[in-house]
Every structure is written in C-alpha cells, then in structure tokens.
Design goal:
The chain is built from three helices and twelve strands. It is mostly beta strands. Strands 5, 6, 7, 8, 9, 11 and 12 form a seven-stranded mixed beta sheet that branches. The relative contact order is 0.18.
Length: 191
C-alpha cells in the first residue's frame, strides 16, 4: 500500500464544517475536533486551551480467535491508517466506529460476526475509555470472540491467523502492532 498525504487549507476540506465550538463531519459521523480550556492550580502552567478529538459514537475493537491444530490463533488484519509510521500496522480483526457501518453496504470484514456473537462465544468483553491528552470521552467496546465454523481458515488478503506468541514477538518492536491490538492483548488472562 501507499499513502499520499498533502496539506490543504481547512476551508478546502470537503464534507466537514466548523462552527464556534468544533470542526465536524456534515453527517455528524466519525469525530469532532473541539476546543477545551483547562485549568489546574497545582501545575507550572495554570491554564491553557487545546484541541481534543471527540468521537461521536462508540467504537468496536475485537479479535476473532480460532483453535488451529489445538492452538488458539488470532485473526489479525494489516490496517492502513493515516499517521502510521510504516503505512500499515497489525490490528485487531475489527476496529471501527460501529455507527458508521451498521447499515452500510461496505462493512469491514467480520463486523457482523463480532457484533452478533452469541454469549457462549464471547471470551472477553468490556468497555474501555481512551481518555487522555488527545481524546474526549472516547469509549470502545473491547471484545474477543471465538470463531464458529462460519469463519474460514482462508482469509481476505490483508488478514492472517497469528498465535499469541507470534504477536508477543512483534510487540517487542515498535510500529508493528497498533495500540488497539496491544491493549486487547494486555487483557488476556493466562490460566
């Protein structure tokens, strides 16, 4: 993959609007960039303003897992995202804002499987806040779902089955597994 980036003036960005408080998509999808004024009395700088990214819906971050030859494998995608150091990083099976895709014709692969997983196939599920210096009230559902027979061993070209050991090897190096993968892997309990 190749990703070409170029700067354009904010006034030339299509389908995005701004008002006195935010920059937002005209369909109120994806995210907003909002201005925040912060004040904390016990810091060197007592007050400041900064932009924050506010998601307009919850996200979904999920791995599908499957036993292959008696060993659990994780369904991993090579995900192209703006801002990645090396264009693509290894990401969970599904990583998206669900509201953008629930009724879309071009859904990410495996989204419906993860969204409609029966309780007996969900191995882990929780909501996680992505609060911090860049995000405002962002929340993602983190989930690990075991595959049933409808999930094949053969996959679309940017997906691969990987063992936990293989992914842990990639964690040792920068810019291979994205933060969503690393966070979800950290939630795995060993018995």
């Amino acid at each position: 993959y190749e990703l070409e980036l170029r700067r354009i003036p904010l006034a030339e960005v299509k389908e995005w609007k701004k008002d006195d408080y935010a920059i937002f998509h005209e369909d109120h999808k994806y995210f907003k960039v909002i201005a925040v004024r912060a004040a904390i009395h016990n810091r060197e700088v007592k007050s400041w303003t900064q932009p924050l990214v506010e998601s307009v819906q919850e996200g979904l971050i999920g791995f599908v897992i499957k036993k292959i030859n008696g060993v659990y494998h994780f369904l991993v995608q090579a995900k192209l995202e703006a801002g990645n150091f090396d264009i693509i990083e290894l990401a969970p099976t599904v990583q998206c804002l669900t509201g953008n895709y629930r009724d879309a014709k071009n859904k990410p692969p495996f989204l419906d499987y993860v969204l409609n997983a029966s309780d007996d196939l969900i191995r882990y599920g929780t909501f996680q806040s992505e609060e911090g210096g860049r995000f405002y009230q962002e929340q993602n559902k983190n989930i690990i779902v075991e595959a049933d027979d409808s999930i094949p061993l053969e996959l679309p070209e940017n997906y691969i089955w990987m063992t936990l050991n293989q992914m842990n090897t990639f964690i040792k190096f920068n810019n291979y597994l994205n933060i969503q993968s690393r966070s979800l892997i950290a939630s795995i309990k060993f018995v």
